[in-house]
Design brief:
107 residues; alpha+beta
Length: 107
């Protein structure tokens, strides 16, 4: 999984040869498992992403991870889903804070 926080998603996609025709510029997750890349999923967030957009993409990411490990979504896996999505949300929000700090230092 590759997490990217950028101030320009469109520019990032062009520089990395990612088809940006279907991009939601609020946030996005893409499956690259069929391409020869060093990651299977990429999650893109603009630097000014809203918390509800982070949570939305975290849900997609959690579903993708469950599919990848063949974990069915059910009442039995509900707690695992919640813990994983909480963990991903914390990691992503921390990454965004770090990236914002770096960008401010570069100004």
């Amino acid at each position: 999984i590759k997490l990217v926080v950028t101030d320009d998603i469109g520019k990032y996609c062009k520089e990395n040869q990612i088809d940006d025709r279907e991009i939601n510029f609020r946030a996005a997750i893409y499956d690259f498992s069929k391409y020869n890349r060093d990651f299977d999923l990429i999650v893109l967030f603009p630097i000014d992403v809203k918390s509800n957009d982070i949570q939305h993409e975290v849900n997609h990411l959690t579903f993708a991870i469950f599919r990848d490990v063949s974990m069915p979504i059910s009442e039995d896996s509900e707690e695992a889903f919640c813990y994983l999505s909480e963990h991903l949300y914390k990691k992503i929000t921390n990454l965004i804070v770090i990236q914002k700090s770096k960008m401010k230092l570069e100004e």
